[in-house]
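Case study 2.
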Amino acid sequence: MMLLPVAMLLWLQASGEESLEWALRTFARVYAAVERNAATPADPQQAIYGGAIPGMLRTLDPHSVFFDPEQFEQLRKMQESVSRGFGSIVNVLPGRVIVLEATPGSPSARAGLAPGDEIVAINGIPLHRLDTPQLIQLLTETRQRPANIDVRRPGSARTLQIVLTPED
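Prediction:
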């Protein structure tokens, strides 16, 4: 309960301050205060990589994508692999698949997939109901045959229906 007034006081001080260094020191003080007074211990990795950095990027540049160390490793492995598929690199989260890149000339690129697009259904299966292992299994199986993909563009509620045929 005491953290809200502290955070508000720090925010009010920040409104007249333009210094990045000051803002970073303030962030560190707020983080430390919240961590000290939290009812349950927080995972610092999750707080920074899952909350603070993605939140900052959404504010500064909604088209930027941040990779935590595990996601970066997944991306690196996907880029090194050569296999049958649609030519897209995706970020797999519980219930979500986000397009990070459509390789030029690939089925995904020809269909118009772009970074930030969210795949919301594959062959009629809504992805929001699946956990990460189920999503990975579905994506692996889908790369072997043509697939009907429902895609939502960033900032749009409307979905696009795309048919992708995998290539070697």
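The chain has two domains: 3-60, 82-164.
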